[in-house]
Design a protein that fits this description.
By secondary structure, the protein is mostly helical. The protein is built from 17 helices and no strands. It has helices at about 1-30, 35-40, 50-60, 65-85, 95-120, 125-155, 160-180, 185-190, 195-205, 210-215, 220-230, 235-250, 255-280, 285-305, 315-345, 355-380, 385-410.
Length: about 425
């Protein structure tokens, strides 16, 4: 099991690097180089390949092997970083944007391949929990490494040397994947059919309506689709807007960067890690019922803090505690959610499993990003207190949705029994 976790954790780590570069490092670097906020804001468009990845997921599912897709995409990321090292963002902003778009495209294809490999490798409730912990923690660690650690590197060594370092990182991971014995596992080889069968499947991939019908026919998919689109809505609004409330009334930007950016992220990683350990001991239905209720209670506490406008050490301490609890529970819920998604995907036939998981993961991203974009407008129109009441209602609705499903729907205990190894 340890070799599977190392393999998955490393691949998800390098997959999180492009997100960290764009979300944390690039805005700071470009602003310091004198670029306008409007131009910096346009970098969000570079995330678009992640929304489109479900369109090429059938190709990854049906053509060649997971090992070749992984080696190809990670090697492509190494070459892209090598190209970026030769560019100066001050003079070649569009060239840099192009290389970052290429990184996101390659990382999204890598995500399809590694998800497909994980679906085949992980067997049983315990392995699913630990494997999805490796996924969530690895991705977050890669993002923190790129957004925080590389920011220090760029200050000391500059843009070119930072990307040269990333080139060596990706090249090393590509060599590791090429020789990784974990991909020789029977569970993965079972998905890598011979050439003649692949040719037939490739032809079917050209008729996407058939694939979509198969995706939606997988048991539990309709419930899971609604769940992944909505489970983060209330939480995402609170996580996005509460720090801005604190910036207006209680904290400086530097304080907020430390408590919300470093400490809260640490709690999020701890929550994600705990999720995998708990899944090895308890049923996912029982865990989700309790954790979603706890998240709703934590949002009630956080919403009550909006009535305090006068800064004080006590208020600051309660705000930090509120953010820490929210991120901890959010990390725990993320691990439970990705485990639920993977369990649903394992009910699909082998030829569409990577496509099915990518479909669910794309909807998960869409739900979060869409509401993040709308949350600010809700606060501007109605104010913090009314907006947070709306966020709380959404969170309570999701808790009810999960609670009902554990007794009468897709999360019934007998549907999530441990699979035989």
């Amino acid at each position: 099991m340890n070799d599977k976790l190392v393999f998955l954790g490393l691949l998800y780590f390098v997959q999180g690097i492009p997100y960290g570069l764009q979300s944390s490092l690039l805005p700071v670097y470009l602003r310091g180089a004198g670029h306008s906020l409007t131009r910096i804001g346009f970098t969000k468009i570079l995330y678009f390949p992640w929304v489109l990845k479900v369109l090429w997921a059938p190709l990854v599912d049906r053509v060649s092997s997971k090992r070749r897709w992984l080696v190809g995409t990670v090697s492509g990321l190494a070459l892209t970083c090598l190209t970026s090292a030769a560019l100066a963002p001050e003079a070649h902003i569009w060239g840099v944007a192009g290389t970052l778009l290429a990184m996101n495209t390659l990382a999204s294809v890598q995500d399809i391949a590694v998800d497909g490999a994980a679906v085949g490798l992980l067997k049983g409730r315990g392995e699913l929990g630990l494997g999805n912990t490796a996924q969530v923690v690895g991705y977050k660690a890669g993002s923190v490494f790129a957004g925080g650690g590389l920011l220090a590197v760029i200050d000391v060594a500059g843009w070119s040397w930072m990307f040269m370092l990333l080139t060596f990182v990706y090249a090393g991971v590509a060599l590791f994947v090429w020789g990784a014995p974990v991909l020789d596992d029977e569970a993965v080889r079972g998905q890598q059919a011979d050439g003649s069968r692949r040719a037939g499947q490739g032809a079917e991939a050209m008729r996407p309506w058939r694939v979509w019908r198969k995706l939606l026919a997988v048991p539990g998919t309709p419930w899971t689709v609604l769940y992944v689109l909505t489970y983060k809505l209330g939480e995402q609004g609170a996580v996005t807007m509460f720090p801005l409330f604190l910036l207006d009334h209680h904290m400086t930007a530097r304080e907020l960067g430390f408590w919300n950016g470093v400490i809260a992220m640490g709690f999020s990683i701890c929550g994600s890690s705990l999720g995998g350990l708990l899944l090895a001991q308890f049923s996912i239905g029982a865990l989700m019922r309790r954790v979603f209720v706890l998240r709703t209670i934590s949002m009630v506490f956080q919403s009550s803090l909006l009535t305090v406008l006068e800064p004080s050490p006590t208020m600051k301490g309660m705000a930090v505690m509120s953010m820490s609890i929210q991120h901890f529970l959010g990390g725990l819920i993320t691990t439970l959610t990705f485990t639920t998604m993977m369990h649903c995907t394992q009910r699909a036939e082998e030829g569409i499993q990577a496509t099915h998981y990518s479909f669910l993961a794309t909807l998960e991203v869409l739900g979060k990003l869409t509401f993040s974009a709308l949350a600010g407008g809700v606060v501007d129109w109605f104010g913090f207190q009314v907006a947070f009441l709306f966020f709380l209602t959404l969170s309570a609705g999701t808790a009810l949705h999960v609670w009902t499903a554990t007794f009468t729907g897709a999360l019934r205990e007998h549907q999530l029994k441990e699979q035989p190894k």
